[in-house]
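Predict the structure of Ficolin-1-like.
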Amino acid sequence: MFSSKMLKYSIFVLVLVFSWLNVMAETNVDLGQKVTSLEEQCGFFCFSPLNFLLRFLSSWEEKMIHTEHPPTSCRAFGYSSEIHVIHVPGLHPFAVPCDSQMAGPGWTVVMRKIDCCTDSFSKNWSEYKQGFGEINGTFFIGLEKLHLMTEASPQELYLYANESGKEFFGKWFDFRLGNEDDGFNLKSITHLNGTIYDYFQGQVNVTFSTYDRENYVDEYYRPAYVNHGGWWYSQSNTDSPTRLYYYREFVQMMIRDQT
Ligand SMILES: *[C@@H]1O[C@H](CO)[C@@H](O)[C@H](O)[C@H]1NC(C)=O
Ligand SMILES: *[C@@H]1O[C@H](CO)[C@@H](O)[C@H](O)[C@H]1NC(C)=O
Ligand SMILES: *[C@@H]1O[C@H](CO)[C@@H](O)[C@H](O)[C@H]1NC(C)=O
Ligand SMILES: *[C@@H]1O[C@H](CO)[C@@H](O)[C@H](O)[C@H]1NC(C)=O
Ligand SMILES: *[C@@H]1O[C@H](CO)[C@@H](O)[C@H](O)[C@H]1NC(C)=O
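Done. Here is the predicted structure for Ficolin-1-like.
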């Protein structure tokens, strides 16, 4: 008697769960969200074993779907030029603009300047470390993120500038940054080709400079201060794409996992 009652109840529960999962699969709605919205409407249901089962399933689903294969870069989004959330090891998930129009699919935009003659890159060390600006406009992603993104996977780098309608680009590969203890130094970078000036030449192991932390060797010349922008300045290069240009309408730097 008792066991047949239990059996009926179990079958009832299973049928409910499977029809629920079907609805999930069709509508592609987050299971956790559904359970939460159901809880808001329910009374007795909230304390039933069914609810515990659904809670368990939803946490399991979250583990399987959301953390097992998380997109670690824009590579995963292919031909998209939208803003997406990525999960870089060592960081909380964060939103980045992806770009597939400038140089093929899968690029992550890490720096963009579309405000031309505004002094928007004259920022201090902690601002460059954290990142600044609006990701849908003029912004820098931040050195900490760049360091961990380049640690996670070897990166190629693309730089684009538009000067009074003339377009320039450059491509590099093996882009890798050290951590803050190493001054976010350039661990490696190799020029491939392009029409833009090579802002990375001879700069392997050169640390980052900002106006409040000039790491350039000559104490009488302060490139980050003079240029109104932070960069990896060295004796072989004191110029940067973050510099205040009065004739550059558009500058964009992007990285992509090397295949
Ligand atoms: C860096 O700039 C930010 C924003 O202006 C400011 O809040 C912060 O105190 C500055 N940090 C240092 C170390 O100067
Ligand atoms: C970026 O988004 C903010 C907030 O949604 C908006 O105010 C701003 O105009 C946007 N900027 C650009 C360049 O689209
Ligand atoms: C480059 O500048 C020209 C002239 O201002 C403009 O027509 C073109 O759309 C720009 N290209 C990009 C990618 O911004
Ligand atoms: C730069 O190199 C890439 C890869 O070899 C090639 O596809 C591209 O056409 C080159 N661009 C120029 C301007 O040489
Ligand atoms: C690279 O830079 C680090 C930190 O500034 C320094 O300790 C190290 O000696 C440098 N290595 C080379 C090969 O220059």
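Residues 171, 192-193 surround 2-acetamido-2-deoxy-beta-D-glucopyranose (ligand 4) (CB under 6 Å).
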